[in-house]
Write a structure and sequence with these properties.
Mean pLDDT: 86
Largest sheet: 9 strands, mixed
Radius of gyration: 29 Å
Low-confidence stretches: none
Distance between the termini: 52 Å
Number of domains: 4
Shape: globular
Number of strands: 24
Number of helices: 20
Length: about 675
């Protein structure tokens, strides 16, 4: 495939590299001045090479310009987010989504509008999460409602555990830097405006559609599955239901995305089969309109907007009667999304969607033609298997790196569940279209309940099979990228007639193996002390090479520990109970774990490191720390307001680390 047929790859790649570089580079005035000067000099100089067949100077100048544009766009997006002091504030905000019910509170996402200071109003930009405590006076909030809230904004922080999911980065890329705990009396004003914007209206309509399903007798687990598959509304699902779909490898059918766009577009194309030749353009336009209408009633979620835009660009060639490269059309849709919101390239959904679609476009046809089925049933099954296999190959590196698991029976379950999901989407649409005809819509709703029940039973059965999901596997970001490149080049080499030389996938494989080997060597030759930041427990790990010895006051292995072991391939030894005082010898370090400290303990153990566990600590009078330890660590069980300095004079301590405040503690041994 010639690169000249994919111009959006050539302009999109440097733009994305500029955005990624924005995580480390902060462009100031001098930096921008130098970049502009370099670009102008390059463009002027390139005029002298226009007569040549290839103008490399112009190409380099354009690449630098696109790189700088990505850097500036990402920087401006971050700079637009308001910075709030951690103090009591009065904020004017707009409810962005329906509140999500938690155990003791409602999670409300709001868009920040203003901060009120006396008689002044300071404009704000960005969003925030409110955790509003449940009580008997809780009133419903609708998307678009305007609130005036008294609260103390708290910055979203990571726990700091090794190789944990960067939650702060994820939330900031979605425009959210702060959260706050509130109650109803803190909400000074709650009003519903006469006019609400399109996105809020779409969410209200989506909730109304769920109400229509209820009126036709769809309730409980079936309603949760119908709402998730047809509308992308997953808040009704029970945790066990989500886990079953994840383990079975079909959770993607619950995110309204490219699969739903494909199913709906094929359904509309089939209905409009009589529109051919001159009417084919009208057929494409109607399909696009139906698809965007579907995007609207599903709440205009980012995933369905992405899928609808992708399909629209793919069909653009039919509308202008020109042959277009599908990869270029897909990348064009990504380019538009990146210009609107540069940080979208870090989104999990964005990466999974585009990697799956690109692999399907590149490899589906070649792999499908390797076998010629003899009848329609075998042909359908083979097509489903090929789509599943190719899409899974494209998303495999991300699945392992992000979720530390791999569904072993994904081909089997997708062959069954994807057609079922197609039937559920079509049947769910028919229930709504025939809603005024009670008898017909109730009959269709009954069929819909049976289909969803079957889907739930199949996923539950597959999820219960031993080794249905390969757990505790992982890789670093570099390994993820190298694995993606290797899979792409290897499949291209195997399936394409005008294939690339075998040296390309071999080099990619060599780089992948080298990265994994380097990581293993670095892990093997180092030892480390880790005091994890875990909720409600004290968890201490001593890593000796690739073996992690765990010490905790609970037998439950926390997700933080599991992800650490999966990413580095560590062998986890059984958890040792640290219910009482505990003495550890690691390398040349003496480590004392306790919740009460006195001179006798210090004299007996002579610790280099003291780890104070538990919520409260008993400190003996006259404790002398002049001769050690050099490091005192307070585990995450201690409250965030805990102040050891107020209890004990520890001026002689070199390092005082509050895990709950400062994140997990790590030290090379």
């Amino acid at each position: 495939m010639p690169l000249k047929e994919i111009p959006f790859l050539r302009i999109g790649l440097p733009l994305c590299l500029g955005i990624i570089s924005g995580q480390w580079i902060r462009p100031d005035f001098i930096f921008l001045l130098v970049i502009v000067a370099v670009i102008l000099v390059g463009l002027i100089t390139s005029q002298y090479f226009n007569k040549l067949q290839t103008n490399h100077v112009y190409g380099v100048s354009l690449t630098v310009a696109l790189f700088a544009s990505g850097l500036i766009l990402y920087h401006n997006e971050k700079e637009r987010l308001s910075v709030l002091p951690q103090e009591p504030s009065t904020l004017v905000c707009t409810v962005s989504e329906y509140p999500e019910e938690k155990e003791n509170s409602f999670r409300i996402k709001v868009k920040l509008n203003q901060k009120i200071e006396g008689s002044e109003s300071i404009p704000l930009c960005g969003s925030m999460i409110l955790y509003n405590r449940k009580d008997s006076t809780n009133s419903g909030f609708l998307p678009g409602d305007r609130l005036i809230v008294n609260c103390t904004p708290l910055p979203i922080e990571n726990r700091g555990n090794p190789y944990e999911f960067d939650y702060r980065f994820y939330m900031e890329n979605n425009g959210i830097r702060y959260f706050a705990f509130t109650e109803n009396r803190a909400i000074v004003s709650h009003t519903t405006p006469e006019r609400i914007n399109l996105i809020h209206r779409a969410q209200i309509i989506r909730e109304s559609i769920i109400g229509l399903y209820r009126k036709r007798g769809i309730e409980g687990e079936q309603l949760a599955i119908v709402a998730a598959i047809t509308l992308g509304q997953k808040t009704l699902l029970e945790p066990d239901q989500k886990e079953n779909f994840i383990r079975a490898g079909v959770v993607h059918i619950m995110a309204v995305s490219g699969l739903h766009a494909m199913i709906l577009s094929l359904f509309v194309f089939y209905i409009l089969f009589f529109m051919k030749r001159k009417l084919n353009t009208l057929r494409v336009i109607l399909t696009i309109l139906v698809l965007w209408s579907f995007a609207f009633i599903t709440g205009l979620a980012p995933s369905v907007q992405r899928a609808s835009l992708m399909f629209t660009f793919l069909q653009a060639g039919h509308l202008i009667h020109r042959r277009v490269n599908p990869i270029n059309s897909v990348l064009a849709s990504a380019f538009v999304l990146i210009l609107i919101r540069p940080s979208v390239i870090f989104g999990t959904g964005f990466l999974l969607s585009y990697s799956a679609v690109i692999f399907i476009i590149c490899f589906f046809q070649d792999l499908y033609l390797k076998i010629q089925p003899r009848n329609r049933v075998s042909d359908f099954l083979w097509k489903s298997a090929v789509v599943t296999l190719v899409a899974q190959a494209g998303t495999l590196p991300l699945t392992i790196a992000l979720f530390n698991r791999f569904p072993a029976f994904f081909i089997l379950t997708n062959i069954i569940i994807v057609p079922l999901a197609s039937a559920i989407i079509v049947m769910g649409s028919m229930v709504l279209l025939t809603f005024p005809a009670t008898f017909i819509s109730k009959t269709l709703a009954y069929i819909l309940v049976k289909l969803t029940g079957l889907a739930g039973s199949i996923t539950e059965t597959v999820a219960s099979i031993p080794f249905s999901s390969i757990e505790r596997i992982g890789m670093t970001s570099i390994q993820c990228l190298l694995l993606f490149i290797f899979i792409f080049l290897f499949m291209w080499f195997l399936l394409k007639k005008d294939s690339i030389p075998v040296i390309y996938p071999l080099v990619a494989l060599l780089l992948l193996v080298s990265a994994a080997t380097a990581r293993n060597i670095m892990t093997q030759i180092t030892d480390e002390l880790i005091v994890y930041n875990t909720a409600g427990s004290s968890t201490i790990g001593i890593r000796a090479g690739k073996t992690l010895f765990l010490f905790s006051d609970t037998s439950f292995t926390s997700p933080e520990v599991t992800r650490h072991c999966a990413t580095l391939g560590l062998r986890l030894k059984g958890t040792s109970d640290i219910g009482n005082d505990y003495y550890l010898k690691a390398g040349q370090k003496n480590i004392l774990v306790c919740n009460s400290l006195d001179n006798s303990l210090l004299s007996n153990y002579k610790p280099d490191i003291v780890i104070l566990k538990g919520s409260y600590h008993s400190i003996g009078k006259g404790v002398d720390l002049s001769s050690g330890p050099g490091t005192v660590i307070i585990t995450s069980e201690a409250s965030s307001g805990y102040n050891l300095r107020g209890i004990l004079n520890i001026e002689k301590v070199d390092t005082l680390h509050y895990v709950r405040k400062s994140g997990a503690f790590t030290m090379r041994l």
